[in-house]
Sequence to fold (387 residues):
Amino acid sequence: MARARLFASLCGLVFLVNLARIVFAPLLSVFIDEFAIGEATAGLIVTLAWVGSASLRLPTGWLLTKVPRHHVVLASGLILAVSSAFAATATTVPHLMAGAFLMGIASGVYFVSANPLLSELYPKRVGRAMGIHGTASQIAAVIAAPFVALTLYVDWRLSLWAIAVAAAGVTLYTWVAAKQTTLPTAGKNDRNLLAAARSQWRIIVTALAIIGAVSFVWQGVFNFYELYMQSKGLSRGMSATMLTIIFAAGVPAFYFGGDLADRLPHVPYMLGIVVSFVVSLLILTIVEHLAVLIIMTAVVGFIIHMLFPAVDTYLLDTLPDDARGSAYAVFSSIAMLTQALGSSVVGYFIEAGYTYDAVFGGAALLLGVIVLGLVVVERSGRLPGER
Fold:
């Protein structure tokens, strides 16, 4: 029961740290109007939240070789509470960018410390634990758009103040739950970040090769999804609904995706998800009818969100105890920094005059070439797979 309470508190905290990253996407049009900025600058605000999420992941991995995982989790909650309050007071674009960056830092510190902790709390069902935890995270993404829409009746800053207050409360509960729990000691010998990265480099590189380009494209897709749907002729309200749909499809995807990750061979399973994402994104760029757009939005959302628990399960289930936290931090920092650039790149091409369909279609074709190469390598038996 003690571990269940701690797990529940972590689900509450991951809900908030993910909401803090996603909340800027439905606010893009508000920022464009209020601060008189273009799409590229608006995309940079979102990018900074994700760059912040990447920036301290590697130092956090080093910190985990010195400090218990749950202490770092608690620190991430405090960072989120303070940084959200700071962002809520923004009156200039640089202030807002700084706030977004700091909120991103909180999420990066959280995921690097919490995911290894979860895998050690439930070592026999890593995929299921990651799936449920990811589902809680994804619910935040689902409510982000309606949550922002509701706060706009008062002021957009209310959304950030709400995150700040909730983060303070959930962090306090997590501290109480951790004190009442006998915590795992599986990572007690994980004391050398560089040695862990060197010894497990093949697994790290394999995970990065599979998810790196995909997550880069996904960042650009979902952060501009409302504007993308508007470019296809949908109203502003319907476009916001489509953003909700693409995230709502991820709720069952995280749950079932994590469960399947426990049952299927890791690498073929991940590659199959990437192939499906490429095909579904290409179809999305060529359809126009509302009913088909709704269906493809749900399909794209379901497929891409199956990939995240699959990759985490592959790493956390395959890495040995004495390298798990450190090697995962190295992977996580590189992967997040790569995907953080997606929004800025998409914003740059859109502002340069390219259509959303052209940008996303070209990205899907490039992904297709990359995954084809990975399939060839996997079939030759040169990718590390099961533990």
Q: What stands out?
A: Residues 316 and 324 are 6 Å apart (CA to CA). The radius of gyration is 20 Å.
